[in-house]
Amino acid sequence: MTTPSQGRRSKVDRFGERLRQRGATLSPRLKVVADYINENRRTVLGQSALEIAAQTATSDATVIRAVQALGFDGLKDLKRTLAGHLGAVISSVDKMTSTTQELERDIDASIDFVRDGHMIGIAEVTKPENRQAISAAIELMRGASGIGLFGIGASAILAEYAARLLMRNGRHAYALNRTGIGLGEQLLAMRSGDVLVMMGQASAHREGVATLEEARRLEVPMILLSGSASPAFGRQAQVVIQVPRGKSETVPLHGLVLVCLEMLVIGLAATEPDRSLKSLERLHTLYEDIRRPPRGG
Question: Any coiled-coil ranges, and where (predicted)?
Fold first, then answer.
């Protein structure tokens, strides 16, 4: 029986073929665009030439020239080709298959895959423009009554962890990390005066859309953590922090999202050290109360 993954791999990768044939003839700037498209194929399907230009530090004209240099009529033609090869959805199984095939059962290559992904990502996260975005995000959080942290899937664990860190440091924080109707109960915690930290994804899933609608209704500003978020998320964000997750065809790396969340938590604590210290002292008092044997026991 042919699996979905096998069926997808049997399709002709016209973009890949043209990049292999013509990549060496591209100028450095055109090559940057071509490499970005190659490493972020599914993301590119939802991006304009201007958005691709922003991700590659080029211009929209350079993006179009790169696409045409690879033999496509334009961006629409490129997207049709990519969409035909990718299919509708890349499952977790397909991503793991792609990743393990790339690493060819080599443990050293696996270590390098994760190391290189995080090292490249750290360089991206700490660029000057991202440092400014993180500073702006901390200012929003500092003035907020409460901090909601949205994330589902693997990001649900990160939302819970970040909320606990913020509470330890004296902030009212809560996770928005359930799926389906369970998210509705969590959204009742959101109030005017709060700020929303959203770990966005390339697709505008229903939980994310519902959270955005509630934030809009309450006039809650939003901080977006994403390397390739849905335009619906990006349009509503007051601050966007670019957090790369690796190639769209391979298993995503979540460590950089955690790093960015910890930057926000520690940065906020550094601006309000007294508040953090008071909260931690109170926490240790509570720990002692909990450890104390019950009376009459």
Answer: none
